[in-house]
Amino acid sequence: MVDIFSKKFLEGLEYETPFFVFSKKALRERYKEFKKYFPDSSIYYAMKADAEKGVLETLFEVGSGFEAASLYELKLLKELHVPPDRILYGTSVKPTSHIKEFHDYGVNRFAFDSFPELEKIASIAPKARVYVRVSVNDAGSIYRFSEKFGTVHENIVPLLVRARELGLEHYGISFHVGSQASNPEAWKNAVSSLHPVLKHLHELGLKIEILNIGGGYPCMYASTDEEITLKEVAKSVAAECKKLPYQPHLVLEPGRAMVADSAVLVTSVIARVERIEHTWLFLDAGVYNGLFESLAYQGSIRYHVTAVRPSYDAGEATFALAGPTGDSWDVVSREAQLPQDIAVGDKLVFHSVGAYNLVMVGRFNGFPKPAVYFV
Fold it and tell me: Per-residue pLDDT tens for 4-13?
C-alpha cells in the first residue's frame, strides 16, 4: 500500500462516489521492481489488466512495452503514439482483420499456437516474427489458461519449422502459468520443461531469440494465503535459464502484478439492513460497476476493505457487502470487518483493485462506470 492512499488523503477527496484513484508513483515503482529483479529482460505490460489512459501513459513514460490482444487495444496505443517496436500482439488466436491492423501499423511480432493460425499470419503479415505459445502446468493458479490456449510441447518444433517454411521468422516460445499463481516455482518448472525442445531446435538451426515467460505474478489480496515475491520467482527462473543450451532474451508480460496495487476504489454506504444471517451494507459500487473480481464465480478474490473515517471506540463487527443492483450475484463480501457503528453516508475503501475491475465494468441496471482519477 502506498502512502498516497492514507486515510488522511482519502478523507480530503471531495469526489462523488464511487470513484477509483490511481497512483502514478505506485505504477512507476512497480515497473522499476520488475526491472530490478529481471534486469536483462524486456517488460511488456499486458493491457487486458487495465487500459486506462493514465496507466498506459505512465508505463510508456518509464519505458514499458505493451502486450495487446485486439485492434481496440492497439487503437489506444496508437493514440499515445507508442511505436510498433514496443508492441506485441500476444493473443494466440486472432481475427484476420486485427492481424492486418497490427501489420499495417508496423507491429511484426505475433503469438500463435496452431498450424491454421500460423498460415493466417503468413498470409496477412509476411516475414513477421512469430512465437509459439505452449501449454504448461498451471495447477494452483486462480485463473487457468492451459485448456483454452497453448499447444503441446511435441508441436513446438514442427510449428517453428513450418514457420520457417512460410517465410516467417522463428522468433521464440511463450507460456503463461495462469493468473494469480500460488506456486513460486511455476515459471521455473515451465522453463525446465523446454530444455529438450530448445536443444532440438538448436540442432535444426532454429535458434530462438526470445523466451516469453508471460504473467501470472500474484498480488497480495485479503484472500491470498501466502505471499510470493518477484525476487524468489526471478531467482529460480534465472537459475533454470542458465541450464538451457543457450540463453534466449527473456520477455515478461505482467498485467495484474503491475497495476493491482496502484489503485483504490472509494464507495459510499447507501443502506444498512439487518437480515437473519448478516447485517448488510449496500454500496454504490458492486461487482458489475467496479468490483467484478470479487464475484465468487471469478476466483473468489477478496479485497482488503477499510472505512475512511476512524472507528472511534465502537469496535468492529462483521458485515456483508452488496452492490447497488437488483441482482443476487451482486455480493462483494460476507466477512468484511468494519466499525460496528458504520452508517449510511460513510465511505469505504477497497484496496489493490487496479487490475481487471475497470475493464470488466458493465451497465447492469444502467449503473455507469465509476470516475477515475490519477494522482
Answer: 688 888 888 8
Dihedrals φ, ψ of 265, to 5°?
-120, 125
- The Cα 111–Cα 102 span in angstroms is 12
Residue 36 maps to a domain: no
Query: Are 241 and 272 part of one and the same domain?
Result: no
State the alpha helices, DSSP H only, in the chain.
Answer: 7-11, 24-37, 53-62, 71-79, 96-105, 115-124, 156-165, 186-192, 195-203, 230-241, 256-259
Instruction: Provide the 3-class DSSP secondary structure of residue 66.
Output: strand
368 and 228 in one domain?
A: no
Domain span at 287: 260-374
C-alpha separations of 334 from 54, 222, 282, 303 in Å: 33, 13, 12, 12
Q: Is residue 304 in some structural domain?
A: yes
| Residue 300 pLDDT class (50, 70, 90 cuts) | low
The enclosing domain of 343 has a CATH number of: 2.40.37.10
Q: Residue 344: is it exposed, middle or buried by C-beta count within 10 angstroms (0-12/13-18/19+)?
A: exposed
Greater confidence (156 vs 178) lies with 156
Whether residue 364 has pLDDT greater than 90: yes
3-to-18, 25, 26, 31, 189 alpha-carbon distances in Å: 21, 10, 10, 18, 36
Give me the residue label for grid cell 441496471.
365
Can you tell me the distance from the alpha carbon of 332 to that of 302, in angstroms, rounded to the nearest whole number?
A: 8
Please state the pTM of the whole predicted model: 0.93
Residue 93 belongs to domain with CATH number? 3.20.20.10
Domain C-terminal end among 224, 254, 284 = 254
Q: For residue range 65-117, list pLDDT tens digits in order.
A: 999 999 999 999 999 999 999 999 999 999 999 999 999 999 999 999 999 99
